[in-house]
Amino acid sequence: MSSEKQLILDFAQPDAMKSILPNPAILSSHGTKWEGIHVEYHRQSPPAETPEHCFQQHNIGLILNSVTVNGILNGKHYGSEPWQSGQIFIGGAGTDFQSGAVEDPEFMAIAIDPTDFDNTVGESTNSNLIEIIPHWKISDPLIFGIAWALKTELESGGINGTLYIDALKNTLSMHVLHRYCAQKPLRRDFEGGLEPGKLQIVINYINDYLNRDLHIAELAKLVQISPYYFSRLFKQSIGVTPHQYVTQCRIEKAKQLLKRRDLSITHISQQVGFHDHSHFSKTFCKIVGLTPKKYRDSL
Fold first, then answer.
1. Is residue 222 part of a domain?
2. What pTM, to 2 d.p., does this model score?
3. Is 45 part of a structural domain of the chain?
4. Per-residue pLDDT of the chain (299 residues; tens, 9 = 90+)
5. Could you write out the DSSP letters of every residue in the chain?
6. Is 71 in the same domain as 46?
7. Could you tell me if 108 and 163 lie in one domain?
């Protein structure tokens, strides 16, 4: 197909899949505060062929039921074959793809922004040009687990927050580098964690902005290292992940605010970065052993 006629889809746009699929996504990350990753969950009926197209992002397609699939990936034809739940295809940005009619497919589409991907894995390779090798009909338990966690997060309305999504995205990106890229990743030494001065900068920033949706990339930028290595070094320094640490800080601040009887529990939950009151109560109880109300009553 000529470049003038090729259908190029920008998964960052909410209606990107509308031109190739008959029905909209059941779940979508569009409208969330997720950065660098776009996720959709679909069940499509009736069967429909997709035209030849490519994505502007790196993409992963994950089948969630038993179906028969035939397709073309980067010009290579694959005949009709049975696919089982958990099997995937992977292609880098610009990979050509086309599928024949599939009977009632249930699947997830995951797209990672190439710039975000390069920023995440860049310190792990000597190459300035990272090439993802297309793969068709493979099984990968780690990708399946990450995809299922992303789907669960969409179903919950993003209850675990942006740092949790960032951690999943960064793990997925590094796994793709290690398993599906032409470049060989470098081995890195994590001994020692973050330098004390840099660690204090990050801790101060977290405490100043607990009420915000924080991202690993913004924390990593404070100390000028990649998001993936920041997470590893931070955990070595503190003993927990950035997401876990921020959650602990939010609960500690909530405990202080609960001493003020003039503040409602709903207001306090928002002040410490929980946008869902029920999730705040469950998290507080899990860490403290009491609900926020019972904790306040015990003071």
1. yes
2. 0.89
3. yes
4. 444 467 899 998 988 888 899 899 999 999 999 999 999 999 998 877 888 898 899 999 999 999 999 888 888 899 899 999 999 999 999 999 988 888 889 999 999 999 999 988 877 776 677 899 999 999 999 999 999 999 999 999 888 999 999 999 999 999 999 999 988 777 666 677 899 999 999 999 999 999 999 999 999 999 998 898 899 999 999 999 999 999 999 999 999 999 999 999 999 999 999 988 899 999 999 999 999 999 999 98
5. --TTT-EEE-TTSTTGGGGT-SS--SEE-TTS---SEEEEEEE--S--PPPSEEESSEEEEEE-S-EEEEEEETTEEEEEEEE-TTEEEEE-TT-EEEE---SS-EEEEEEE-HHHHHHHHGGG-S-SS--BPPEEEEE-HHHHHHHHHHHHHHHHTSTT-HHHHHHHHHHHHHHHHHHHBSSPPPP---TT-S-HHHHHHHHHHHHHTTTS---HHHHHHHTTS-HHHHHHHHHHHHSS-HHHHHHHHHHHHHHHHTT-TTS-HHHHHHHTT-S-HHHHHHHHHHHHSS-HHHHHHH-
6. yes
7. yes
